[in-house]
Design brief:
Length: 517
Amino acid sequence: MQTQRRRALLSVSDKTGLVDFAHGLLTLGFELLSTGGTATALRAAGLAVTSVSDVTGFPEIMGGRVKTLHPRVHGGLLGRWDVPEDVAAARENGIEPIELLCVNLYPFRETIARAGVTLPEAVEQIDIGGPAMVRAAAKNHDHTLVVVSPTDYAGVLAALQAGAPDATFRRTLAARAFTHTAAYDAAIAEYLTGELLPETLVVPARRVQALRYGENPHQTAAFYEVATPTAAPSLARAQQLQGKELSYNNILDLDAALGVALDLRGVGAVVVKHTNPCGAAEALPGEGLVDVYLRARATDPTSAFGGIVGLNREVDAATAERLAETFLEAIIAPAYSAAALEILGKKKNVRLMALSPWPEPAAVLELRSVSGGLLAQTRDALPDDLENARVATRRTPTPDERAGLDLAWRVARHVKSNAIVYARPGQILAVGAGQMSRLDSARVAASKAKEFGHDLRGSSVASDAFFPFADGLLVCAEAGAVAFIQPGGSVRDDEVIAAADARDIAMLFTGHRHFKH
């Protein structure tokens, strides 16, 4: 079907770049059709616009709920202009083709992210006409270009200026459109269901970047941000200030570093290697960030080489100087001073990640793939104050021992099982991670402490799960540990408690564990 005029329908909530895009369409000879606020914005910019109500012959009604749901709109979007029956039906019913549709949907996610939003407010931000038009145009992409994001405006104008956009370009835009509506519907379903683990889990995820490869060069990979209604901790919102492109393994390690850094109180620093914290520290009285970082690095300076550092305060010049002493893959912090950026800028390959505002820990959903499926759980974000921990032994921990237990227990939940963590107030002394037996983890940690000159006499130890036998506790005690924290719950708890009492060891039972597989 031939028409003397080219028509584009524009109806957007996100008006970024709208006026320039519309002006480009006018230059190409398009007539602009529009609705509501979009038409108002275009007219305010001095552009000629035809209201959709003038096309349909029907006013917008019910507070704008009904305005584009009309055959003259959907016929224009869905018509196959190379099918004679469609052309005849269009002529009979006064329908003209709509060559291009530009729609993005009501801001539902932004609405439900607001504090105190009510259900009726959220429901009014469920777009009906928008998704219907997007899906219609996407289905009919051979005849109707569909645009759902301002990031595509320039490419669409360039394709139109070059002539008729080809089939591949049209199909790409259609795929983006269906992805857009699918993610939108997923957010609505999640909100209305009100369940973290619903019967059907829909995961709207946006690709943040394609990665050069996965864990190994023969694996392909990409990084996706999972859309959530709250500002949960997310590397997807971090800004890379310098350094090489992030790798798959970098992102895993940075996420691990962020998790530990969020659990540190006051000024804190953590060094991560292969997703396990190999050192962590919190400020003692009178200390600054550089002192804390140096103590975190000192836990295992060998593993710190090629590691990832997480800092929960702005990086200053003094800390940057010491960071630059060690080969590091990446650093994540809330911000960097100008002097720190200048110093670290000399290490051009180190990836500097800034995450501001610095988030709070949150019990967001974690997803892991298994063959043919997904596992989903809330993040281990249980508040780990020790007020409710039970003293299981005759002796109660001293204040210093309790401070060491507190730090060790918070860090232990970030260590791969079986986890053993030695600490003193403000510093992790040794970590045993990912061993097949708890006894081996205790031995590995004690051996590392000896290698790096850390005196474990008087130290506190956290075990992420119960000691199944007394042997693991005895290895730690022989290394110098005098206080323990563990979940309890073994059938041999009495034996473990007796072994502790025989050595005047203090031990707390928390009643919950911190497995991390």
